[in-house]
Amino acid sequence: MRILVVSAMFPPHILGGAEISASNLASWLLKQGHEIGVLTAAPSPDEEKSGEMVDGMKVWARFFPRPYPIHKQGNVKQTYLKPLWHLQDHIDPRNPRILGEVLDAFKPDFCNVHYMTGIGHNALAEIGKRDIPMMYVMHDMGLSCVRMTMFSKGKTCETQCTVCKVSAWSKRKGITAARRIGFASPSRANLELNARHQPLNDYPTAAIPNANKYPPPTIARQPSDVVRFVYAGRLEESKGVDVLLTAAEAARKDWNFTFKVVGKGSAEADLKARYGHHDWIEFTGHVPMQEAIDHIAGSDVLCIPSLWFEVLGGVVVQALQNSVPVIASKIGGIPEFVEHDYNGLLVQPGDVDAWRRALETLLSQPEKLAHLRSNAAARASEYDPDHLGSRFLAFMEKIRDSGPVGKRA
After folding, report:
1. CB neighbour list of residue 79: distance below 8 Å, 6 or more residues apart
2. Which of 93, 233, 282, 310 could disulfide-link 306, Cβ–Cβ 3.0 to 4.6 Å?
3. CATH assignment of 227-383, among 2.102.10.10, 3.40.50.2000, 3.30.470.30, 3.20.20.480
4. Parts of the chain with a pLDDT under 50
5. Are 303 and 325 in contact (CB under 8 A)?
6. Helix orientation angle between 385-400 and 17-31, rounded to the nearest 10 degrees
7. pTM, whole model, 2 decimals?
8. 379 CB burial (10 A radius; 0-12, 13-18, 19+)
9. Contact, 347 vs 338, CB < 8 A?
10. Does domain 2-213+384-400 have CATH number 3.90.480.10?
């Protein structure tokens, strides 16, 4: 097939995991003999590309007029520009025109849509107008929430606010314009949440983990009498790192262990100010993926204290593949991968005492930690990129050959 990948962010420009997953799936499909095109957002008009070959793929990097490019999202001080940015992302007529030009130039048989924010949600209908089948990969809650997280004011949103209702209505027009469309997500939980606000159940859906191939660690875990906990991810309020470190402070009064915090984000300065004086806590800041994997593989337990509806953190898969058990919040798609008392522990999100007890459980029961470690890699074959890529391809073929029949995969 001739497949067009639509993703506002795409390597070499990386902000999160969605664009890495989009690139990995595109690369896998390319290796299977499919012709791949990519439409992504250019940071500036000077960086545009028009069908240039990059790593075997035809790349269209187009500049989408906005108050600031998607690449600077989250790092803009002029917050008053955000409403205008989102308005343009929903209604600017240049969005569908640009996508339409690329569709007509590449003439794809199929579209894989990963990241419409930054390209423009009103552009999606252009794919439907041409009756091109598409798989919409939902890496977050972007179809239901402007923030893409359904997290506001320190807690998960129970319902949509007015702005998100209007946004979802606008996005729905692009969905219903397509005769052949299906929705994939790394977790069933994310499909179910978005189905509350979008007509996903009228179309084929599939829960398929991202077909990511992670580099193996370059170090081996060394024996240690001191348990080594690690957090790896963005340092944002929604990630719950302050809950985790507050619990760790309480546990440290009775137990000896170390904590490594890998990553950066808007909460980094505050977390360092509150916890950086402890000699048992290390903040590494942002590190390359290989170094992050080495930090995880060299630790005894990965902690994921998310407060928001986590779809699935790639670090969870990285940890389990390297026999590192996981303590994680019982929220979103995480329980689909972390099984309580089998390959990790599940904890009520935001509950400091519950997190303290979970840490102390593994500190006081080394045999339990050993049991969880032995089980951690048992499901590693399920995350093999060839296996997952084949599942994606089968789902794409199902979408291509069907209409809105409400089938699940």
Report:
1. none
2. 310
3. 3.40.50.2000
4. 405-409
5. no
6. 80
7. 0.89
8. middle
9. no
10. no
